[in-house]
Design brief:
Elements (H helix, E strand, L loop, with lengths): L6 H32 L5 E2 L11 E4 L1 E2 L5 E7 L16 E4 L4 E10 L9 E7 L6 E5 L6 E2 L4 E7 L13 E3 L5 E8 L5 E8 L3 E3 L1 E3 L15 E2 L4 E3 L5 E4 L3 E5 L5 E5 L14 E7 L7 E4 L3 E5 L5 E5 L14 E7 L5 E6 L3 E6 L4 E5 L14 E6 L6 E6 L3 E6 L4 E5 L14 E6 L6 E6 L3 E6 L4 E5 L14 E6 L6 E6 L3 E6 L4 E5 L14 E7 L5 E6 L3 E6 L4 E5 L14 E7 L3
Parallel strand pairs: 9-17
Antiparallel strand pairs: 1-3, 2-5, 4-6, 6-7, 8-10, 10-13, 11-15, 12-13, 14-17, 15-16, 18-19, 19-20, 20-21, 22-23, 23-24, 24-25, 26-27, 27-28, 28-29, 30-31, 31-32, 32-33, 34-35, 35-36, 36-37, 38-39, 39-40, 40-41, 42-43, 43-44, 44-45
């Protein structure tokens, strides 16, 4: 039937079109919903990770939308699947115990059903108290006589350094520890503990219990060193100058006393002192040498300092300015030995290099010239020295090979080379003989061979050579034959020495009682002084002498016009009197 309608087919087609439209609209709605969820701008807020350990943690969180719900999980892993967990109103999570790293995983959903990505934060839990171990530091001997005495301290974890102070450290040993110091290696876990002591004994540090905490706040139970170090106070040292004296205590405290017109005491004044006063407070000294009117000392770190009279540049600071307090000389160079003479000074560096400075009229600097030097110059380049002694205007030294060399003024044969010829450079004296110690006096010299034989040479008008005569000697002659000596000191015109048995003997000029034998009579041969007392060090200068007994007692005797004996008076003493250092 042409042009006629077929109602059945039309209705079916319309139904199909309607159904397709419904499907398309449904898919479109679902697509919109899915797209909204995946691109949600919902975010979890209020959370951040912590790198510092804590004993427990409670996290609080929220979101950037209203009416959010949350699902969360605390775990030991960095990622987590939260899809099986329901959303709820809880806005916090906790981990109250268990050492280690914990992770909180949180997801938020807003009122429209949009969900955030999973946010993960972490916290380190620590509920274990730190432990500590003590051992003596690497290179630290079990017995010591110098500072610092060092222990290594290792905690099982980093600690709160504000809780680790010297106030919680005590010594379970017998020594009296005068000071502790702590050095952090940089990781807040390993430390070096240093100790100084005011007396001999054992040192075994203890960290008091429940004092040191770790970062989380757990308190250490403390600990005791597994090692004990025995400290023996070294004997004091003394050096007699022209009319002043300086000494160093076993703890390194420098004291000086006597005349001070040129600032040679180093106390910042020019005031004469009849008793020892502390010099350069806070600085420790290992060696001291008092010259005629100037003084030099070496710190344990090898720093050289000088002070006093400086007209000839004998302080070595590059000037001729007097100094009432110690100033560094030859900055940057480490010294092991120093000797202050009349108006010149010589020292040996830790590398064995000999340097001299100051007056050089008689070639006493040994640099081949007679030119004054206000700063240290190398003498006898290429030769390594082990000992040096600056006299009034001549100098003698011993090389590391035991060879004795002298130079400078030789008017009285004090160089010992068999002549009276001045030498501007070091010349060998007593060739073929090995020496262990040397001391240059005013115009004479004495030395001890490696076999303990005492020899002297030079000016002898007062019997200062100890050979039983007053005859000048241009070459070394044996003094006190048959007696073995360990130490010698040549003064103005008198000499004192210590035998290998510890006995003290002196000889020579004695007008001021500087021999210490109770008289003022000159002696051409050694006489026993302070019989029954054993000595370990002796220092003789112009008109007075000082010595250290093996018990560490300082004694001085002789001229005391300027208080150079240090006994609080200006009274001459013809026998040794005890002097107390600060």
């Amino acid at each position: 039937m042409s042009g006629s309608h077929k109602p059945g087919l039309i209705s079916l087609f319309a139904l199909l079109i309607f159904a397709q439209g419904c499907i398309d609209r449904s898919l479109s709605k679902n697509s919109e919903t899915s797209q909204s969820s995946l691109n949600s701008d919902v975010m979890v807020t209020g959370l951040s990770s912590s790198s510092s350990p804590v004993k427990s943690v409670t996290w609080s969180f929220g979101c950037n939308k209203s009416s959010c719900t949350y699902r969360s999980l605390v775990s030991r892993v960095t990622t987590a699947d939260l899809s099986s967990l329901p959303f709820g109103s809880t806005t916090s999570a906790s981990q109250l115990s268990g050492d280690g790293i914990y992770y909180l995983h949180v997801q938020a959903k807003d009122a429209a059903g949009n969900t955030s990505s999973v946010t993960t934060v972490s916290a380190i839990l620590d509920n274990t108290a730190p432990t500590v171990t003590f051992t003596k530091a690497a290179g630290q001997a079990s017995s010591a006589s110098s500072f610092p005495i060092q222990f290594s301290i290792a905690f099982s974890e980093a600690i709160n350094t504000s809780t680790f102070t010297t106030s919680i450290i005590t010594n379970s040993g017998t020594a009296s520890v005068s000071a502790w110091s702590i050095t952090n290696s940089g990781n807040n876990q390993n430390f070096t503990l240093s100790a100084t002591s005011s007396g001999s004994g054992t040192i075994k540090p203890v960290i008091n219990s429940l004092q040191v905490s770790d970062i989380a706040g757990n308190l250490s139970l403390g600990g005791t060193s597994s090692d004990t170090i025995t400290y023996t106070v070294p004997p004091p040292k003394v050096s007699a100058g022209g009319f002043h004296t300086c000494g160093v205590t076993g703890a390194g405290v420098l004291n000086c006393w006597g005349i001070n017109n040129d600032g040679q005491l180093g106390d910042g004044t020019t005031t004469e002192r009849n008793s020892p006063v502390v010099i350069d407070s806070g600085t420790s000294y290992s060696q001291i040498s008092a010259g005629n009117s100037h003084t030099c000392g070496i710190t344990p770190a090898g720093v050289l300092k000088c002070w006093g009279y400086n007209d000839y540049g004998q302080l070595g600071d590059g000037t001729t300015t007097y100094r009432n307090s110690p100033v560094v000389s030859d900055s940057g160079t480490s010294y092991s030995q120093i000797s202050a003479g009349g108006v010149h000074t010589c020292g040996i560096t830790t590398a064995g290099v000999l340097k001299c400075w100051g007056n050089n009229t008689y070639g006493q600097l040994g640099d081949g010239t007679i030119t004054q030097q206000n700063s240290p110059v190398v003498s006898d380049s290429g030769t390594s020295y082990s000992q040096i002694f600056a006299g009034w205007d001549h100098t003698c030294g011993i090389t590391t090979a035991g060879v004795l060399k002298c130079w400078g003024n030789n008017t009285y044969g004090q160089l010992g080379d068999g002549t009276t010829t001045q030498q501007n450079s070091p010349v060998v004296s007593d060739s073929g003989t090995s020496y262990s110690q040397i001391s240059a006096g005013l115009s004479y010299t004495c030395g001890i061979t490696t076999a303990g034989v005492l020899k002297c040479w030079g000016y002898n008008d007062y019997g200062q050579l100890g050979d039983g005569t007053t005859t000048q000697q241009n070459s070394p002659v044996v003094s006190d034959s048959g007696t073995s000596y360990s130490q010698i000191s040549a003064g103005g015109a008198h000499t004192c020495g210590i035998t290998t048995a510890g006995g003290l003997k002196c000889w020579g000029f004695n007008f001021y009682g500087q021999l210490g034998d109770g008289s003022t009579n000159n002696q051409n041969s050694p006489v026993v002084i302070d019989s029954g007392t054993s000595y370990s060090q002796i220092s003789a200068r112009d008109y007075h002498s000082c010595g250290i007994t093996t018990a560490g007692v300082l004694k001085c005797w002789g001229d005391n016009t300027y208080g150079q004996l240090g006994d609080g008076t200006t009274t001459q003493q013809n026998s040794p009197v005890v002097i107390n250092l600060n």
